[in-house]
Design a protein that fits this description.
Helices cover 20% and strands 17% of the residues. An 8-stranded mixed sheet has the order 1-2-3-5-7-9-11-12, with no helix packed on it. A 4-stranded parallel sheet has the order 4-6-8-10, with no helix packed on it. Helix 2 packs antiparallel against helix 3 and helix 3 crosses helix 4. The protein is globular, with a radius of gyration of 20 Å. 35% of the residues are buried.
Length: 266
């Protein structure tokens, strides 16, 4: 994925007003200005439609970046600052899209892993007892995140297309989140550095054969078992011709085994 170009679209007048509250006092005019200044950068990667409504994950992520984020990233003036803004925005969008935070002090996620804290997003994580990272991090020397690991964390909602903006991601682990649903966004194909992709035991669905085009992908697990191995004969939620392992409903009522796929080859 190439870096987002710095050529920004003009912001329509109707969108310019979105950051303003009806009773905006002069004290908040700087905030409104910051919202409007950041808007073109996120429109470039997410389009305009998602900012027309105030309840979308993208709008909420922008509002957080502009008004609530304690780090207050600068308005980008070069490619590096732009990439940093886009990365933080993408992670905040994923957070809101999976109900990381519904309202003040209330969260669906089992653990927050420091998401939306006023620290670098490379530190939005915890290292567990076995030494593996949970959350987001393992950044390279330029601060680009390489791991997104939110498995077994009670994610609710959908995976937004902004996942495709984390261009340097090498490992994506979202398995064991039974309330994560919707279509796997095709923008995952933009993750050219992806090596592992684990979305099994979720309610994500769709055809993910676009993964077969990723150059360094080595290991994939999804709910792509076709039901022929068990008496229930349920259709697979996910279609994937190159996945190394496929999971699906087992012979026991609540079992959900995973199988090595003999035909899987890249």
């Amino acid at each position: 994925g190439d870096n987002v170009m710095m050529k920004l679209p003009a912001v329509p007048a109707g969108l310019r007003r979105l950051g303003e509250s009806p009773s905006a006092h002069s004290s908040s005019s700087a905030n409104n200005s910051r919202f409007k200044d950041l808007l073109p950068f996120v429109i470039t990667v997410s389009g305009q439609d998602v900012f027309q409504r105030h309840n979308t994950p993208q709008y909420r992520a922008l509002k957080w970046l502009a008004l609530q984020d304690g780090l207050q990233l600068p308005i980008p003036s070069n490619k590096i600052e732009n990439q940093r803004l886009v990365q933080r925005y993408a992670l905040a969008t994923i957070h809101y899209a999976t109900n990381g935070q519904l309202e003040e002090q209330k969260t669906y996620w089992k653990k927050s892993y420091n998401f939306l804290e006023p620290i670098h997003e490379c530190e939005w994580n915890e290292i567990n007892d076995s030494g593996s990272l949970r959350g987001v991090g393992d950044c390279d020397e330029f601060g680009n995140v390489r791991i997104l690991s939110l498995y077994e964390n009670e994610l609710h909602g959908v995976l937004p297309r902004e996942i495709g903006l984390l261009w340097y991601l090498e490992s994506l682990a979202l398995y064991d989140n039974w309330s994560l649903e919707g279509i796997v966004p095709p923008e995952v194909e933009d993750l050219g550095n992806l090596k592992t992709f684990y979305i099994h035991r979720t309610r994500l669905q769709g055809n993910i054969d676009f993964l077969c085009n990723l150059p360094v992908l080595q290991d994939e697990m999804a709910d792509c078992a076709d039901g022929q191995r068990d008496p229930l004969h349920q259709e697979a939620r996910v279609s994937c011709s190159c996945c190394k392992q496929c999971c699906g409903p087992g012979k026991e009522e609540f079992s959900y085994p995973c199988f090595m796929m003999e035909q899987a080859s890249q």
